[in-house]
Every structure is written in C-alpha cells, then in structure tokens.
Amino acid sequence: LEDNALREGRVIRDDEDIFELKEELSQFSSLLEKSYPRYYAQKYNTDPVNASFVQSQLLNENSALVEYFVGVKMLYIFVISKSDILMYRVDVNDVDLDQISHFCNLLKTRPGSKESNAEYQDFVEAATAVYEAYLKMVVDELPTRIDALIIIPDDKINYIPFEVLLRNKPM
C-alpha cells in the first residue's frame, strides 16, 4: 500500500513537471512568434512544398534537386531542375540495396597503397557500382550546366555518402 502511494506521488510530480515544461515551451513559442515572425512562420509552416516553389525559390540554373523514395516494389527518383521535372521508376529487384551496406563497410577500412591493396580495388568497384545504380541515370539526363545537386535520400539510400562515389574507375 505504501509503495503504491509513493508511486502515485511520483506520477503526480512527473505530471506536474510535464505540465510545467509544456507551459514553458508554449511561452517560448509565443516569444518566437512575436520576436521573430519570419522564423516562426518558416519553422511551424506545415504546408507542403510544390515543384514550382522548388524551381523558383530553391534552385538556380546550375543546380538540381534529386529525391529518392524507396517503395515496396519500386524505387522512385524525382529530379527537379530550374526548367525540368523528371521521375524515374526502378524495380526494387533491379537494385541491390545491400550493396550500400557493403560500400559503407568498405569506407570504414583504411586501404594502403592503391597498387597492391585489395581493399582499395574493392572500394573502387563498390563506389563505381553504387554510382551507376543510384546516380548515373540522373546525371546522364541532366544538362551539362548542372554542377550542384541537392540530394534527399530515403531508406538505405540515406547511408550513401554521395560525395565519395566514383563516376569512373581511376587509372
């Protein structure tokens, strides 16, 4: 009986603490809204962003946005540039999502000299294969003026460090 009373006392105190913290958060949000209305509007705006907004407000002539969505059966790749909107559908069975894990594991090793190190060759093969599987089709279709990509990954694609992928195998 005494343990129950102690537990109930703790629960009541926890509820009071939660209430006070929520009240502080509410006051802080009000302060933000009054002091920084533009920030508040951006932070708490939940309206979806459409492609024309991305094209007019986020991109310049030399950039494109690439968004990946991994569905149950398909990998969807959406590409938005200043002048185009493209969508690619790739059957999930045609891409090896496990190859991403292999590639990331290779990044954790420290290869020695590139002439004699098998890990280096494995890295080159994996970096090229991941590029070809997830980015090549997009890059091949983009105008040559595009020199910057904004990449929004999904699922296991989140783990790809796109900046270290290789277009071509080094000599």
Topology:
Blueprint: H1 2-35, H2 37-44, H3 51-58, E1 63-70, E2 74-81, E3 85-91, H4 98-107, H5 118-134, H6 136-141, E4 148-152
Parallel strand pairs: 1-4
Antiparallel strand pairs: 1-2, 2-3
Helix pairs in contact: 1-2, 4-5
How would you state the average pLDDT, rounded?
A: 87
Shape verdict: extended
Structural class: alpha+beta
Strand proportion, as a percent range, falls in 15-25%
Key traits:
6 helices; about 50% helix; about 170 residues; four-stranded mixed sheet
Explain what you see:
- With 171 residues, the chain is an alpha+beta fold.
- 49% of the residues lie in helices and 16% in strands.
- A 4-stranded mixed sheet has the order 3-2-1-4, covered by helices on one side.
- The protein starts with a helix and ends in a 19-residue tail after the last strand.
What would you say about this model in short?
The protein is of the alpha+beta class and 171 residues long. The protein has six helices and four strands; from the N terminus they run αααβββαααβ.
